[in-house]
Amino acid sequence: MAPQPKNIILGISAGIAAYKMYDLVSDFKKLGHNVHVVLTQDGKHFVSELPLKVLSSNPVHCEMFSHEIQAKPIHIELADLADIILISPATADIIAKMACGICDELITNILLATKAQVYIAPAMNTNMWKHFTTQKNIETLVTKLGYKIIPPEEGALACGYSGIGHIASNEKILKTLFVDETINKPLAGKKIIITAGGTKEAIDPVRYIGNKSSGKMGLAIADAAHNMGADVILVSTVSRDRNYQVIEVESAQEMQEVIESEFDKCDGLIMAAAVSDFRPITASKQKIKKKNEDITIELTRNPDILEILGRTKREKQIIIGFSAESENIEKNAREKLEKKKIDMIIANDISVPEIGFESDENEVIILTRDGQREVLQRRPKAQIAQHICNKLVEIFQKTIKEAKKI
Ligand code: C5P
């Protein structure tokens, strides 16, 4: 482990695990980093300023306001200085404040002002960690703000409980900050379009032909690819607030236009969207009035985006598709893999209600162009997304190796 020296702001909040930060500050220093400790007001009950000052060779900050003349207020100075901000231990309280953008003391102000990557190492009672609100706040920090969580572990807790809530070891924290950062960014430098949701094909200004896709699978893939360093463009029919580019579309034609205008600059495309195969030939400009007779809506075929791009893509561009089927799952997926000339297909069975469209879980078969077959038993979509991105990395690596052989 020989990381580049970094400016680290270590925010210590009021948890018993705060005492472990003496060692962590020491470790940071031994690795050559410049550490500034910021204590919360309640954090002061758990550690003393003097040893932290000696160990970090820097002043320890706690107060928001100073009567001294400063070029910049302290929260902005530290926010701008930081390469990394680590909140450790992070209590349920500071996690909630971060999720809501509350700036009630120095560290929360720094967090709102900084552009640095924020890591948090939570530590708390098991019930507090598992509480819906804490989990919701964690989700906000990860998905909306791009914070990295160093998850708490199982163990005997100071509160008398035994269970999850024990702070991750200092070793794990160091590994996450300095090793995983480089190793776990295997998609860095890759620009990837990911589609999500079901398209809506207008019948009139209020009605459309749609489908049951929730967009969860595509979104999970976009999050995973972003976390692995990819420059993600999410083309989605469902509105999502993310810290990467999201382009909202409604119809298959709009999705096609966006993809075709972006794909040339991209290294990959993952089509997780459920694209309607048909659209009304004409969409009425006015709301269609109710009459006492049946009406017929004539449909025309939408172009198959995946097939068009599969046939025209450059050799190094990788395309992944999905195949949602209610029968002959694998056979149909294999046919699509061939017909659409794509690199990988993920097949799932939509006849099983617990998995698929609106569910948080899925069960899939992954087939690749070079003949690999993998079955992923039922699991959260986030895990399936991670696996798909890992496969994408493998395909990129294989493409590079093959290009070198030529
Ligand atoms: O042929 P089928 O519609 O089952 O193929 C599904 C895959 O093709 C999905 O990845 C979907 O996003 C993509 N698709 C597409 N354009 C369409 C229909 C499906 O890109 N018009």
Structure description:
- This protein has 406 residues and is α/β, with parallel strands linked by helices.
- The protein has 2 domains: 7-179, Rossmann fold (3-Layer(aba) Sandwich); 191-405, CoaB-like (Rossmann fold, 3-Layer(aba) Sandwich), CATH 3.40.50.10300.
- It is 35% helix and 24% strand.
- It is built from 13 helices and 19 strands.
- It has helices at residues 21-30, 49-56, 74-81, 92-100, 106-113, 126-130, 132-143, 170-183, 216-227, 252-262, 305-312, 329-339, 381-405; strands spanning 7-12, 34-39, 84-90, 117-122, 148-149, 153-156, 162-166, 191-196, 201-202, 208-209, 231-236, 245-248, 268-271, 278-280, 299-301, 318-325, 344-349, 361-368, 373-380.
- The chain has an 8-stranded mixed beta sheet with strand order 12-11-8-13-16-17-18-19, sandwiched between helices. A 5-stranded parallel beta sheet has the order 2-1-3-4-5, with helices on both faces. It has a two-stranded antiparallel ribbon with strand order 6-7.
- Helix 1 links the parallel strand 1 (7-12) and strand 2 (34-39).
- The longest helix is centred in the last third of the chain and has 25 residues, at 381-405.
- The two termini are 35 Å apart.
- It binds cytidine-5'-monophosphate.
Q: Quickly give the CATH architecture of the largest domain.
A: 3-Layer(aba) Sandwich
Bound molecules: cytidine-5'-monophosphate
Number of domains: 2
Mean pLDDT: 93
Proportion of strand residues: 15-25%
Biggest beta-sheet profile: 8 strands, mixed
Determine the structural class based on helices, strands and strand pairing: alpha/beta
- Tally of extended strands? 19
Tally of separate helices: 13
Give Rg in angstroms. 25 Å
Helix content: 25-40%
Within CATH, the superfamily of the largest domain carries the name CoaB-like
Q: Judging from the principal axes of the Cα atoms, what is the shape?
A: elongated
- Poorly predicted segments: none
CATH topology of the largest domain: Rossmann fold
